[in-house]
Specification:
Layout: H1 9-19, E1 23-27, H2 28-39, E2 47-52, H3 59-68, E3 71-74, H4 77-86, E4 93-96, H5 104-109, E5 113-116, H6 119-128, E6 133-139, E7 161-162, H7 166-176, E8 179-184, H8 193-208, E9 215-217, H9 235-253, E10 258-261, H10 265-268, E11 272-283, E12 290-294, H11 303-307, E13 313-316, E14 327-333, E15 345-346, E16 349-353, E17 356-359, E18 366-370, E19 391-395, E20 401-405, H12 410-413
Helix pairs in contact: 2-3, 3-4, 6-7, 8-9
The protein binds pyridoxal-5'-phosphate (PLP).
Residues 52, 54-55, 73, 75, 96, 186, 189, 219-222, 262-266, 374 line the site of pyridoxal-5'-phosphate.
Length: 420
């Protein structure tokens, strides 16, 4: 029988008594191991890794990466603020945002780097801060996301300046005296070295047309295997051909480009498990389903409802009970009054129920959902049905557990309401 990755039965008992459920539990050891793998990414002429903090932006997590020497990829001015608040220096932060607010000019003045992501952003930024050094994010024309919703390159994606607008982007930068020194591409979740090689090569073609560019940022999108049938990314395997392309580029142009990458999923996904309880069970008869209802759901983890994403699920009964239970197909659902609140959809099809063979669950059992480090706590239907935001806990390297974000209180949930 498979066991949870890093949670022991003692941890679960302690969580139940001291912290309550649902709680996200992050594992410091895994976070540090992942940071080391990222820092070992092959490169030739200088390298900097950034954590795409939208994956999980809690200060305690940012601090672990800060201490490991990893910088920040922020996706809004608020994330820039949050990174600084956690202790990051402005010089370690780069912003690539879908919504560029004017406040960013103060941060740029203070050392934060910006990748402009549309022609309109160049225009607005140039008006605020002419003659600045900037980066440009391009959509190189292809993507490799697992689903349409995780694909962030190609003609169906709005992210970045479309490759055919390159000359217009250059002209606009010239108009405002903006000096383009960084090129950025980020095309979505992929694990295929051939795809990365192709994107790196397309990105280098863009760099070729900007003679003052000194660094190329290839974004994130290094897919992890949450389920046994999924392909994990091997960073060494992906990085070697990319490194060789940088070497060839230097031979051809004399330009030694620095490489940047900004993983989110890769650093976080396996480093967190969501600990919940089975709080009810219903059945729809012999042609129907056995539903396990958790005390959590889309309020904590939206990925299955959104993409049909698959996460490992463990039913863990009280100690000693396990041997009396068999496995059977069950559908795991959340606690919201919403039929889309489903944790076992068919892969890639959020609307289809896919009963999973799990230990026969009973009310009061723990249910641990793994692979929940990235885009779960940070991207949920928070407060739907007025459920409070779950707690976040760190399992430190010495095995002890501490809150890194307390459970939201009822007062916090309604604190901004005004009855006129
Ligand atoms: C979200 C994002 C990332 C991280 O993507 P992952 O798939 O989590 O690795 C990196 N760069 C940018 C610009 C992003 O928007």
């Amino acid at each position: 029988m498979e066991k949870p990755r890093f949670l022991t039965s003692n941890d679960l008992e302690q969580i139940k008594i001291e912290f309550g459920t649902p709680s996200f539990v992050y594992d410091e050891k895994t976070l540090k191991e992942n940071a080391r793998s990222v820092l070992a990414f092959p490169h030739e002429f200088g390298f900097f890794a950034r954590y795409a903090m939208k994956a999980a932006p809690t200060a305690a997590i940012l601090r672990i990466f800060n201490m490991a020497g990893i910088g920040i990829d922020a996706s809004s001015v608020h994330e820039v603020d949050r990174a600084i608040r956690s202790g990051y220096g402005t010089e370690s932060i780069s912003l690539s945002s879908q919504e560029l607010s004017e406040e960013i000019k103060y941060f740029v003045h203070d050392g934060v780097k910006v990748n402009l992501c549309s022609l309109n952003q160049i225009h607005r930024f140039g008006t605020w801060l002419p003659n600045q050094r900037v980066g440009l994010r391009f959509n190189p024309g292809m993507g490799s996301g697992g689903t349409n919703r995780t694909n962030v390159g190609g003609p169906a994606s709005s992210f970045g300046i479309w490759k055919e607008d390159l000359e217009e982007a250059k002209r606009l930068c010239g108009e405002y005296g903006l000096k383009v020194e960084r090129i950025h591409t980020h095309i979505g979740s992929g694990s295929d070295p051939e795809v990365w090689k192709k994107v790196a090569s397309m990105s280098l073609d863009i760099v070729r047309r900007f003679p003052n560019v000194q660094s190329l940022n290839l974004g994130g999108g290094y897919k992890v295997a949450r389920m046994p049938d999924e392909n994990a990314t091997n960073l060494q395997e992906i990085g070697e051909p990319v490194k060789n392309l940088f070497i060839d580029f230097a031979k051809e142009t004399g330009r030694k480009l620095k490489l940047e990458i900004e993983p989110g999923t890769f650093l976080l996904a396996h480093a967190c498990s969501l600990v919940t309880h089975v709080q009810d069970i219903t059945s729809t008869g012999k042609d129907g389903y056995r539903f396990l209802k958790l005390n959590a759901g889309m309020t904590e983890i939206l990925r299955p409802s959104l993409y049909g994403a698959q996460h490992p699920i463990f039913i863990i009964p009280e100690a000693g009970q396990e041997k009396f239970r068999n496995q059977c197909p069950q559908v795991v659902v959340g606690h919201c009054c919403e039929s889309g609140d489903l944790l076992t959809p068919a892969s890639g099809d959020p609307e289809a129920l896919a009963p999973r063979n799990l230990l026969r669950g009973e009310v009061g059992d723990f249910c641990v959902i793994e692979g929940t480090g990235a885009y779960c706590s940070s991207m949920s239907a928070k407060n739907y049905n007025s459920f409070p935001e779950a707690a976040e806990i760190l399992k430190k390297e010495d095995g002890s557990l501490s809150f890194i974000r307390k459970r939201q209180t009822f007062d916090q949930l309604i604190e901004n309401e005004v009855v006129p």
